[in-house]
Amino acid sequence: MDDAFLAATRDSYDVLAAAGYADRLPLDLDSKPLDRALYGAFADLVKAGGNGPVADVGCGPGWMTAELCRLGLGAFGIDLSPGMTGLARSRYPDLRFEVGSMLALDLADGVLGGLLATYSIIHVPWERRPELFTEFLRVLAPGGQLMLVFQVGDERGHRTEAFGKPVCLDWYRQRPGEVAELLRDAGFDVWAEILRQPGAGEKVPQGYVLARKPPAAP
Fold first, then answer.
1. Residue 166 CB coordination number (10 Å)
2. Is the pTM here over 0.85, yes or no?
3. Could you report the per-residue pLDDT of 130-184, keeping only the tens digit for each?
4. Do the beta carbons of residue 74 and residue 158 sit within 8 Å?
5. What is the separation of C-alpha 70 from the centre of its chain, rounded to a whole number of angstroms?
6. Range in 71-80, 103-112, 153-162 the model is least confident about
């Protein structure tokens, strides 16, 4: 399969890391109580399942990895961009961050208690989602929890500039119901499909899907 989009995405986020992306888009859960509650629910579900390690996939500069640790999870970050991974390591030197592709995670089968992908599946072409969700299922332990967050819609877009820097970045909006159905096809049990109306600075509704890998048979 053509993975040219991976190289373009990696290089674009390397550019953004050097351009001060982390300082311009800080994490602000204080102004988003519903988001804060959903991340808390995800953390509680992981803890109820045994509190295994949690991968923040597409972690960027590490905001959410740190938030997951604050919520009591043993979280680490994975990002395609070496620039973003290096930024995360410099900002959170006590946490673990690795370079890797979400389509081919360098993890053994069934090792994760949870996997979070916050606004990161948006750069994977729609037709590659079945492959992506099968990979997520592979690395989760039985009963492991999954949370996906994304912008809602049917549009596909392409950016050639961000923060005054040239990039080559495709993005794909998602529909919660369609994502949930693809997760079921991959073998997940879906807990919730949530659509939140746009908040300050957001142009479209935001989507959240929570699911789990089925527990092992007794």
1. 10
2. yes
3. 999 999 999 999 999 999 999 999 999 999 988 888 899 999 999 999 999 999 9
4. no
5. 17
6. 153-162
Q: What angle do CA 156, 205, 120 make, to 5 degrees?
A: 55
**CA dist list (Å): 154 to 65, 120, 204:** 28, 16, 11
Q: CA nearest 140: which of 86, 215, 195?
A: 215
CA-only gyration radius of the chain, Å: 16
Nearest partner of 80 among 47, 120, 42, judged by Cα: 120
Residue with tokens 């999954």: 146
Output the six-digit token pair for 118: 């916050």
64: nearest Cα among 110, 18, 86, 95? 95
Tokens at 170, concatenated: 């495709």
CA nearest to 43, candidates 96, 143, 95, 113: 113
